[in-house]
Amino acid sequence: MIKYILTKLGEDWLFLVLLGLTMALVSWTMDYASAKSLQAYKWMHTELKGNVPLQYMAWVTYPIILITFSSLFCHLVAPQAIGSGIPELKTILRGVVLKEYLTLKAFVAKVIGLTASLGSGMPLGKEGPFVHIASICAAVLSRVLSIFTGVYENPYGYTDILTVGCAVGVGCCFGTPLGGVLFSIEVTSTYFAVRNYWRGYFAATFSAFIFRVLSVWNKDSVTITALFRTNFRMDFPFDLQELPAFAVIGISCGFLGAFFVYLNRQVVLLMRRPTALTRFLTKHRLIYPGMVTLIIASFTFPPGFGQFMAGELMPRESINSLFDNFTWTKIWGSTPPPGLGRSAVWFHPQVSIFIILLLFFIMKFWMSAVSTTMPIPSGAFMPVFILGAAFGRLVGEIMATLFPNGILFDGIVYRILPGGYAVIGAAAMTGAVTHTVSTAVICFELTGQISHILPMMVAVILANMVAQGLQPSLYDSIIQVKKLPYLPDKYNIFVEDIMVRKVKFLSPQTTYRELVHLLESATLKTFPLVDSKGVYVCFFIFQSVTDCDSNTDESSVWSVQIKDWEEAELDKPIDIDQIRIDPSPFQLVERTSLHKTHTLFSLLGLSHAYVTSIGKLVGVVALKELQKAIEGSTRSGVRLRPPLASFRDKKKLNKGNTLQ
What is the Cβ-side half-sphere exposure of residue 470, based on CA atoms within 13 angstroms? Predict the structure, then answer.
């Protein structure tokens, strides 16, 4: 009874609670540490006010130290911690084994490196890397809890664990469990097992709850509330006549999101070209992140060019100010109202608010695209989120200028809310870059208001429609650039290209001698049973060598007679009725595509399948063959590595039986 309870606890509840609690603590600790780092950064800048050269030195040196530390630490501890982690997880969830990506070393490197990156003030995100961190935590916890269960033994149970880890990663990153689960499904899964739905929601909700409770405990907020809470009016948040403007935001963000992916990929490809410069930067790994940080910090320096693009605002400050309730075009040039707070940074006495927002968007656009290529743990979700918010705010301020008194409809005047446009822009831009629609759900969870969910969904869907026709998602783009072994969506690789053709089988004519030899020479636990040498009736046979051995431990008087009797028995056909048989093993045909085969293996949890042609057994495919095929697939989905092509070579078929 105790063992049963422990098994159930280890399998579901205990695992989910521990995962949620651990990730909430990690997320809050990282946020706390990075917030203190940014606080020290701003304190230095303020204390040196009046001495511009020293201010500049402090402004650029601080992030350079943190970024170079992050790059060096990850390079020395676990290079797998570099980057987002979502592209690699997509690859792992497709059935490919990437070494060292889900180890404790990678966890430590990712957490410390990401904390340093976020504390530098550079335009970098947390969500992508945190999905990787949560998946590592889920993998490690599954190993620990394997003393209660066998979850780690089944490769597809392991996939379920990683799927839950992805959901928790997004959920506790911003305290958005609903959008977190949906986003994790969209970005990492080709299919999603419904049995994991409650697990994902339970773990993500528990983790998000603990994350927000810790914020209250630390007095960051008065009560459990949204991370970027807005206060838009709920009675008439927008008018239907504004929908065309929201549609324009969606379509524009689709084009801008596609261009962001293109720009990011071109920067990475440029750095991978075999030139003297790239060879030099590869040899001296810290120069590239150091130079990128120096350039970005120089542009954002507040007394310099930064004063024209709100350069002194840190990422979260930018979001809070872009989402505020004030209409900036009405405030500019007059006395700032009380409660404006950090939004006052957007105002410059000589420069229009439109120019400030436009410069902010243009500068942050290329800065975000370039900074996410640095060899450090970093994500693009938050920088793109800020870009979308800035673009939406720009459109909202333009609308507020075109309709200064609001929009008149049915005798009621509806005032334009530029902050609402910013929320819609943020959702549309992130949706366009990631090719997801769940960003709309994440946005209303982040802001705590569902008032703009309709225009938000319209904008996100339009942005996706445009972006998907122009570019792959950012994560698929990285997969292509890194040439990760990822199953192509094309269907021109078939089972016959990868199957093992020389299959060891049994038939009613098989003798006990042949069976003993087969069991002694193979490590397999199952064999196909055919009704003749040509026609396939495949059953599973569970046997062992000892089952077929006769008892020879008799007195020496009868040894000769017994040996003769054994020889005679071994030459007799096997008795099918004495063998355990599975009458319905899974079967494929030769022209089943690799894509369909992978889907069937994943959905049904198969370890192997037999291949038939008009009832004839022609081959077998196991997880090992499937994995090799996925790893050998190129971007075009046509070419396979020589080891796979060699399955067609009869000279190499003797090495082929890998069914296990």
Answer: 24
Residue 19 has pLDDT above 80, yes or no: yes
Give the residue from 331, 372, 351 showing the smallest Cα distance to 125: 372
Which amino acid, 511?
Answer: T
Q: Cα separation of 442 and 180, whole Å? A: 7
Please say whether the beta carbons of 619 and 496 come within 8 A. Answer: yes
pLDDT at position 523: 62
Identify the pLDDT of residue 219: 66
Residues 6 or more apart in contact with residue 474 via CB below 8 angstroms: 260, 261, 264, 380, 433, 434
Q: CB under 8 Å to 421, separation ≥6 — which residues?
A: 245, 246, 249, 392, 393, 395, 396, 399
Phi, psi at 379, each rounded to 5°: -125, 170
Query: Cβ(352)–Cβ(332) under 8 Å?
Result: yes
Report if pTM > 0.70: yes
Handedness of CA 69, 72, 77, 80 (dihedral sign): positive
Which residue, chain included where needed, has tokens 């605002």?
313
d(CA 529, CA 510): 10
Taking Cα atoms as reference points, which of 127, 8, 44, 548 lies closest to residue 302? 44
Residue 573 bridge partners (DSSP): 511
| Percentage of residues of the chain with pLDDT beyond 90 | 12
Distance CA 426, CA 382 (A): 9
* pLDDT reported for residue 651: 36
CA 393 to CA 371: how far, in whole Å?
23
CB of 587 closer than 8 Å to CB of 144: no
- Distance of alpha carbon 74 from alpha carbon 78, whole angstroms: 5
Q: Rounded mean pLDDT of 471-498?
A: 75
SS3 225: coil
Sheet strands (E) in 261-375: none
